[in-house]
Amino acid sequence: MKKITAFLSVLILMAVLVPVLAAGPNGTVGVRYCDPATGRYGAPVESDRVRVTLNGADLDTDVPGIIRTMDGTDGRTLVPVRAIAEPLGATVLWIAENQQVLILNGDDTIVLTLGSATAVVNGQNMALPGGVPAVLVKVDGVDRTLVPLRFVSEQLHTQVSWDPGTLTAAVTYEKTDVLPPEEETRPDKGMVLSIKEDDNAQTVTMLLSAAPEYRVTDLGDRVVIDLLGFTIGSGRDGSFQPENPVIKTVRYAQHTDDIDPACAHTTRVVLDLAEGCTYAKNLTVKGDSDQLAVVVSVTPPETGAVPEYPAGLDPAAFTVALDAGHGGSSPGACYEDIMEKDITLPVTNRVGELLRERGYNVVLTRPDDSYVDLYDRCEIANQAKADVFVSIHANASSSNRGFQGTFTYYFPNSVRGEKLAEAVQAGLCQSAGSVDRGLLTNNYVVLRETAMPACLVELGFMSCHEELMRLVDPAYQEKMAQGIAQGIVNYLSSQPAKTADQSREGTEPAGDLPAA
Fold it and tell me: What whole-number distance in Å separates Cα of residue 466 and Cα of residue 402?
């Protein structure tokens, strides 16, 4: 019995001592890593502490340096970004919308994205050693962004040595009290931290690190905004297409002194305008303490007579499938006791009447207040071998009851679907005078399962009282129907010639998705 007791005592002692012996020389710390995709912290993980010194002095931080190993690779030392960068004279910025850390040091820009094993240094992609990315952690209730120590330190032109016995990383650098002459006279004012759109406020805003100094040049179909003395924080040129009816594309690029010899760098932003829009009529550029806003002013077009339908077509050769959203037991959105299905049905039926008056064949997926399955709606159109499919809906927003406007969706990467959506959106917004919110893509069943170009129109927002009152107004419904019909005909007029005795087989252009 004594032998058994002694044996058990040894086992207990080993169980207690082994974790202690396995820990690093500086001990361990419980670290909760944040998943950048979900924004949630995981369970605590014990990580070895790392001692970090700067020119021999211990790095003093509320969250220590740690070792992290991913996917069986060698462990990498991570440290709080500000603790290592700011003592070296660098500036640290956090771009929340992109989950990016920007480290600025003279002419050098280092961009680290949470969860990404690739960094951007002066515009060039660089793989992070061991694939260990920057990460947000929580230690004893304190949140900090940790970055790879050696990678960041060496990009900041320091030397790093590693003592595996003591888990100590020694960072050394040469101190200089006087900046180089080129740094003393460097005229750069600041950085462009982000350029983003707000389709609700109809603005394009450039967030800057300093008060803007800029020059605007009107080139007719485009507007050039030069941000004098500003560099791009991410180090990358880019472009995007905002969802508003005035600006088609926003393009931006960083220049040296080729634009203004008095500035070492200038960031040039080019706004490509939609047809008929001008800087004087549709745009306002205004600067604030730390941002530059381009405000889009939209004047609805005159809502007079809809343009005549194109001549030279054989309407009887084309079949149009029209789908009134929801119906029967599926009311759709409901605001102020008004149901979506009771808006979409009269508009859809009126579009059908207008097209039939012009000689087009029309198929309705639901001509009355009845429920039709989504897949059955697609089958009706497919069986009819329709040339186009247009589904009509009304929108709603639970978070912004003042939001208005018209969207049209098409299936992702569908070339013909996009052209149909573009034609219908343009016709509807011109006829009804609604706010043009542009085109979007989605994997909706009625866009995916239809064997012809398809689009889904969101007439307006029922959640906005003002727009809801228009949506139920018969006169406004007539304008919407006229515009949708006009858009459909405009699209069909751009397709290969076709006569009534031709079948659909063999007449569709190749190279598009089979559905939508």
Answer: 8
